[in-house]
Structures are given as structure tokens and as C-alpha cells.
Amino acid sequence: MQYETALDTALQRLHDEGRYRTFIDIERRKGHFPHAVWRRPDGSEQDITVWCGNDYLGMGQHPAVLDAMHKALDATGAGSGGTRNISGTTVWHKRLEAELADLHGKEAALIFTSAYIANDATLSTLPKLFPGLIIYSDALNHASMIEGVRRNGGAKRIFRHNDVAHLRELLAADDPAAPKLIAFESIYSMDGDFGPIADICDLADEFGALTYIDEVHAVGMYGPRGAGVAERDGLMHRIDIINGTMAKAYGVMGGYIAASAKMVDAVRSYAPGFIFTTSLPPAVAAGCAASIAFLKTAEGQHLRDAQQLHARILKTRLKGLGLPIIDHGSHIVPVHVGDPVHCKMISDMLLEDHGVYVQPINFPTVPRGTERLRFTPSPVHDPRQIDKVVRAMDALWSHCALNRSELSA
Known about the structure:
Blueprint: H1 3-16, E1 25-28, E2 35-39, E3 45-50, H2 63-76, H3 91-104, E4 108-112, H4 115-129, E5 134-138, H5 143-151, E6 155-159, H6 164-173, E7 180-185, E8 187-188, E9 193-194, H7 197-207, E10 209-214, H8 229-232, E11 241-245, E12 255-259, H9 261-270, H10 272-275, H11 282-295, H12 298-320, E13 333-336, H13 340-354, E14 356-357, E15 360-361, E16 372-375, H14 383-399
Parallel strand pairs: 3-14, 5-6, 5-7, 7-10, 10-11
Antiparallel strand pairs: 1-2, 2-3, 4-12, 8-9, 11-12, 13-16, 15-16
């Protein structure tokens, strides 16, 4: 086989389809979020405003988080020294897991290096714990959930996105005695729509199924203490396993599950993705715990309120221009483009001509024909910055002669 030729062909295919992904080099400056510096390929620098980051509340710059990380770094050094089984469990890891268990009102929590790994490792391990398990997975679940379900070797059923009636049909068609688990998300990040948590919990009760919810884009953002949409809706006690991240609203990195003590103990004992992975550095764990603790407070609620306000303002202004906004009432602001070449073109012009950084979202992250720009306003995007991005989008939409018919949510 001509390996180099095969690589050339694969890469050229992405270029031909207009969905080759280009990473830009940015340098965040402490205390200046959402401002950053773009280091151009020619070596020059340009000041930009980040509009597509997942650090939704700016906690990656928060003094409480940075102070906790500095203290842990000075106390312990850089790395953890091993897996959790081999010297990689420290007081910082245990404190973080206790903070997470408290956040979700669960008996225990287990931290992973990312929410992707947490989903993959947990969902691929559950059939070992419940022989014959059938997993019912929402069609638009995140790639990490899809991968975990695919790798577990057990039975799976895919229900149409947020279609509770279809889920009921699938549950009713299977052996009533078979163990079952329903896996879904609270917020689907590409459209910003919410999962029907209460309805799914009702079906789980009716058919004797476990519930597994991914709250990755909701933790820190919703609920009185930032535990997510299930907390906001008073439903956390009805969820068996909650998956979340510390890399988005909490501004650091890492993922986790929260569940009963027995469930966590079993996953901890059987999941290769946990057993054989070096644990988070203690400084990272300390920063995560500090961020979670802060966002449980009234000050955290103030940040959530400000973020939601800025998201509503941006949506309202873009809708007023007739731009096709996908609006399901969450904090995410997707603008539908529908073509990978135009999507990349607008993204490039926003960056180069207006200093606005928002990455194009193309296939396979979203289906072909639904390419979009995904804006994530934060509490610290001020009115002037919002005005700038609205004016830039208005000008570029006209420049590219794109439709201004608003999408229905």
C-alpha cells in the first residue's frame, strides 16, 4: 500500500469538502478574558475576542481557582505520580470527589481525565456489571457516549432525538426482565436544546431502567448551586448516573460521574479507562474543587444570571437582523449557515477583519447541511463587544449573500 498517497487522499478529501479544520494559535492573558492574542502564521500578533470558548463563566481566570492551583502546585509539584491505584490518589482528588458528590446530592463521585473518558469508560463497563444490559441511546448523544455504547459489546437501541414516544416503543418491545439503561443529555450543545428529563425518568420507572444523563454543558450553568438542568428541575434524585465536566463552566479540566457509592465503586473497580489512566495533577484537582465550591454560592448564581442575560441579548439582536438563529432557550447561540465553505469563510473574515474568534462547526460534529457558527457569550462579554459581533455578522451575512429567514426552534 502507498501509505503517503492514502494520507494525501484522505486530507485532500477534507479540503475538497470545505471541512478541513484549521487550528489557530491563541494566547489567553490572565485577567483579560475574553480577550486573547492571535499569533498569525506569519508571526504577527492581533488582539481578538474569543466568542466560542467553553469556559462559559470565565472561571479559568478566576482568582479563587488560580489561588487554589498555585497552593497545590507549591505543595505537591506538577504531576500526580501515577494511576489512582498506584500512588495517584491524593487528598486533592478525594476533596474534589467529595465536592462533586455534594454538588449532585449523590453518595459518591469518580473523576476522570475528561468527560469524554468518563462517558466512554462508564458506558462501556456497565454491561460487565449488568449482564444482558440493553442501552437506549438518544440519536444525538455526544460522540463519547456513542463510542462507549458501541464498545461495550452489549445490546443497544437508538431512539429518535428527544422522541419519548419512540423510546417507549423500543422499551416495550424488549424483554421486561432484561436490565436496561437510558442514556441521554440535558443540553445538546450544537442546537442548545434540552432533553426531556422528567418524561425519560417516568419511562425509566415504568420499565425498570437505569438513567444516565450527560450534564456536560449544564453543570455550573443551571440550578441554584450549578448542578445542572436536573437540579434546576428538581430531578437529580431520579437520575442514577450523572456525567459532567470541569473543563467548561468550571474553567479547568477533567470529567466525572456521580452516583450511588456501590455504582461508583463498581465502575472504579472494572473500568479500564479509569484503572489504567494517570490521575489528574493535584493542582488541577484543587482548581476544579475551588471552582465548583465558588459556583455553588450566590456569587456563582450572579455569574449564571449575567451569562443568560448576555445570551438572550445576543440572540435577540441577531434575530432582529433576520439571521437564522437556533434558539431553544439555553445559553448556547448557534447561527445556521448550512454550507461548510461559507461557514469557514465567515469564520475567517470575522477573525481577520473584525478580531472576532468563532470556529466553524462542520460535519461530523453536526450533520451535513447544518453547518453553523456557535457563539458562547459569557458574563464578561460587555455591551460594546456584543455590538461589535452583531455588526460584523450583519455585514458578513450581506457580503456572502446568505438568507435571512429565521429558523424555527
